[in-house]
């Protein structure tokens, strides 16, 4: 579906990939809050998330400060600039074998390999360090670049959430996807 003119283009034109040697993935720090907040308020980044417009830096800082010790929160830097962030939150109790994944890429870096690199790192942590059997996510049904990325990484469609979220004046559906190892 083509976005309406008032919407950001969720699928930017092709740009050259970023040299993998320029991508530094590391744990997010509290002092990253302002850069993460700026990125999360960009229209293309926000389009694929549940975030509201005009998120405050304080909200982002509180989110970073309130993470559980077992949560994984990463950022990808390119030439010292935060280009993406991603996280995996492990469930507790009888669902301790599973976690939920979140991933977002700065508007300037979408379609340039940053999301793929970040996803590989998050899944390596899930597999090699957290021992997760199941990684879950939700993705809007009209976000074809993200869906393709997740499918390439082994995620499968498990269902569709109808009217999952309200985005720019209308309800949108989302796929439930998961990867089991």
Short description:
Its EC number is 2.3.1.-. The chain has 181 residues and is an alpha+beta fold.
Describe the model.
The chain is of the alpha+beta class. The protein has a domain at 20-132: Aminopeptidase (3-Layer(aba) Sandwich). Helix content is 25%, strand content 33%. A seven-stranded mixed sheet has the order 1-2-3-4-5-7-6, sandwiched between helices. 27% of the residues are buried.
Provide the descriptors you would attach to this structure in a database record.
181 residues; 33% strand; alpha+beta; disordered N terminus; 7-stranded mixed sheet; 7 strands; 5 helices; Aminopeptidase
Fold blueprint:
Blueprint: E1 23-27, H1 33-40, H2 43-47, H3 57-65, E2 72-78, E3 81-90, E4 98-105, H4 114-128, E5 134-140, H5 144-152, E6 156-167, E7 170-180
Parallel strand pairs: 4-5
Antiparallel strand pairs: 1-2, 2-3, 3-4, 5-7, 6-7
EC number: 2.3.1.-
Enzyme class: transferase
Pfam family, one: Acetyltransf_1
- CA radius of gyration is 16 Å
CATH class of the domain at 20-132: Alpha Beta
Number of E strands = 7
* Oligomer description: single chain
Alpha-beta classification:
alpha+beta
Helix-strand string: EHHHEEEHEHEE
Q: Give the CATH H-level superfamily of the domain at 20-132.
A: Gcn5-related N-acetyltransferase (GNAT)
Strand content: 25-35%
CATH topology of the domain at 20-132: Aminopeptidase
CATH-defined architecture of the domain at 20-132: 3-Layer(aba) Sandwich
Helix tally equals: 5
- What best-fitting shape do the alpha-carbon axes yield? globular
Strand order of the largest sheet: 1-2-3-4-5-7-6
Instruction: Report the average pLDDT across residues.
Output: 92
As a percent range, the share of helical residues equals 25-40%
Cα-to-Cα separation, first versus last residue:
33 Å
Biggest sheet features: 7 strands, mixed
- Return residue spans where pLDDT drops below 50 for at least 5 consecutive residues: 1-6
